[in-house]
Design goal:
There is one protein chain. With about 290 residues, the chain is mainly α. Helices cover about 55% and strands about 5% of the residues. The chain is built from 13 helices and five strands. The strands form two sheets. A three-stranded antiparallel sheet has the order 1-3-2. Strands 4-5 form a two-stranded antiparallel sheet. The longest helix is centred in the middle third of the chain and has 25 residues. It starts with about 45 loop residues before the first helix and ends with a helix. The relative contact order is 0.09.
Length: about 290
């Protein structure tokens, strides 16, 4: 049983090479590899169950080994651990019992030239995941920024001056032109949304009062502004649904004043309340049924 894995249990016990032996290897994953935010870590269950670690470790040792694999997956570089005993004790969850589980928990890890510990199998899985993450970022960048020059990693080159949007669109043909139009639409999205909300109208505020200009308009028709305002608010606050939304409450007020003035100009001259209309319909229905 020589195969191992953290994802596939670790091979032979590790760590530092004895004095005079071969020098430590180079780091097994790129220095910028970062899998933070990627919670999934592949686990080769067949290799794990056939490994020396599974056969030789106690329950606590195996638990600490798996904890270190999981913690290393979220380190930078991915798949590595700091070569620090207190930190390793913390990351493994062993705490004060670290000394007793250390040898088996670090089964398969090697110290590399950057001073960090790497597990070969975990590093292989981390490299695969890192390449997949870079490829996904490159695809996203090509989709959203097709006009930008990209480096070998598929990401935008740094320090490259961008020509104006119209020039890029003309130079890159129909696709770039369509992208420029989409960018323009995105930049005006907020204002368009606000305009749409204005067209749909808003409900009258419960504390609404006519401004001086609206009060003056009511006075020119011989109406008492405050009395009219009370009736106006009571009516429109009770109107349900879309009928109670207006895009211009000032114009609605002026029309209301005109109707009151045409109806006689007194305080009682007002449109019927919705509840009054409903009550009247109900009375007519009852009278028609002969109840």
């Amino acid at each position: 049983m020589t195969d191992s894995s953290p994802c596939e249990a670790p091979p032979a016990p590790v760590l530092r090479s004895p004095s005079g032996s071969l020098p430590p290897p180079a780091p097994l994953t790129p220095a910028d590899s970062d899998l933070r935010g990627l919670p999934f870590m592949p686990l080769d269950t067949v290799r794990l169950l056939d490994s020396d670690l599974f056969a030789l470790s106690t329950g606590d040792e195996f638990k600490c080994a798996v904890a270190l694999w999981c913690k290393a997956w979220q380190q930078v570089p991915a798949g590595s651990l700091p070569d620090h005993e207190r930190v390793l004790a913390h990351l493994s969850g062993a705490g004060a019992g670290w000394v007793g589980v250390r040898a088996m928990a670090l089964h398969g890890w090697v110290l590399c030239t950057d001073g960090r510990l790497y597990h070969p199998v975990l590093a292989e899985k981390a490299n695969h995941a890192w390449k997949a993450r870079q490829a996904q970022r490159a695809r996203a960048n090509r989709r959203w920024h097709p006009h930008e020059r990209q480096g070998a990693d598929g990401l935008p080159e740094q320090g490259v001056e961008k020509p104006p949007t119209s020039a890029r669109a003309a130079a890159n043909g129909p696709t770039a032109t369509a992208y420029a139009r989409e960018s323009t639409r995105e930049s005006t999205k907020d204002s368009t949304g606000q305009n749409a909300a204005t067209l749909r109208g808003v409900r009258l505020s419960p504390v609404w009062q006519p401004d001086p200009a609206l009060q003056a308009f009511a006075c020119t028709l011989g109406l008492e502004p405050q009395a009219v305002a009370e009736r106006f608010r009571d009516y429109w606050l009770a109107v349900p649904g879309a009928r109670g939304r207006k895009s211009d409450w000032g114009a609605t007020w002026r029309n209301w004043c005109r109707r009151e003035h045409a109806g006689g100009g007194g305080p009682s001259a007002r449109p019927p309340h919705p509840l009054e209309e409903q009550a009247e319909r109900l009375l007519r229905r009852v009278a028609g049924a002969g109840v």
